[in-house]
Amino acid sequence: MTGPLTRRDTLRICAAGLALPLGALGLGAIRGAPVPVQWTGTALGGLASMTLWHSSERVARRAIDRLQVEIDRLENIFSLHRPESEISRLNREGGLLAPSPALLEVLDQSRRVADQSGGAFDPTIQPLWQLFAAKLSGEPPLNRMQLTATLARVDYTALSATARAIRLGRTGMAVSLNGIAQGYMTDRVTELLGNEGFEHAVIELGETRALGSAPDGTPFAIGLVDPAAPATLDRDVALANASLSVSGGYGTPLGAAGRHHIFDPRTGESAMRLSRVAVISPKAVWADALSTAIYVAGEDAAPALLAAYPASRAILTRRDGSGVEL
């Protein structure tokens, strides 16, 4: 599980140029053909972009303006970087009255994946991230007693959530939804575009979701970072009416010994079973959570996890560089 940093920034920086199919930019020369309009910015502390195709640039830019309002609304729920967001207040106070439906829905999805993965995915991972972040900031080296004490505060079963209130059942517990909220936000924005009549778009808000295909009918090509050489790409994924999420420890190293930011909530150590997990799914919220859960739980757990989410599949890269598609 991840902390407040977005774990896919490297992927999205490298792949940004590949999200647009070859020749798509030339469509603007055809009278009345869809033209690409792009926005870049940040969402939940990470790089974000939206590319919309429409015959009217003005219509597309007005849609982007409305989508930015929606992104801001969701940031006020899920962002760990905003002190007055719902999740920040929940973590600070240990409870939250009258939570938003969006927060309840994401917590419900989180619990489902946590149950199915045997705790490999856990939305209460934040204390573990805070511990390692403090060590990187110059505090004394980590010791086993500190790790054990922190792990006692990581347990999604101690979190209760109803329409009336969310409660953290142990002192010092804290929630991070960075392993799933980006997917929820990506889905929300994509569905709003579809409801407005858009047929072609690529949304990258921590996860990638393609609305339709490219205007020429071909899938969008999304590049995957090579885990052995993170400055390069080693393959493309064809994406049409689907979502892509990628988890890999190469994104944010944490000190020596290969430690990185995707923690196993059950041990407190960085997950080391796989080198990269790419999940393709109809919904970004599913792909987001599944890529983390499979990365932590390992290859043997992947088939059952994927089977619980219709039309979901995965591309796994093992530590020795070999791969398998499920």
Automatic annotation (TrEMBL):
Membrane-traversing stretches: none
Single GO molecular function: transferase activity
Alphabetized InterPro entries for the sequence: ApbE, ApbE-like_sf
Recorded catalytic activity of this chain's protein: L-threonyl-[protein] + FAD = FMN-L-threonyl-[protein] + AMP + H(+)
Alphabetic keyword roster: FAD, Flavoprotein, Magnesium, Metal-binding, Transferase
Cofactor: Mg(2+)
Top class in the EC scheme: transferase
Entry EC number(s): 2.7.1.180
Entry's family note: Belongs to the ApbE family.
Protein's recorded name: FAD:protein FMN transferase
Native source organism of the sequence: Sinisalibacter aestuarii
Source taxonomy: Bacteria, Pseudomonadati, Pseudomonadota, Alphaproteobacteria, Rhodobacterales
Gene that this sequence comes from: nosX_2
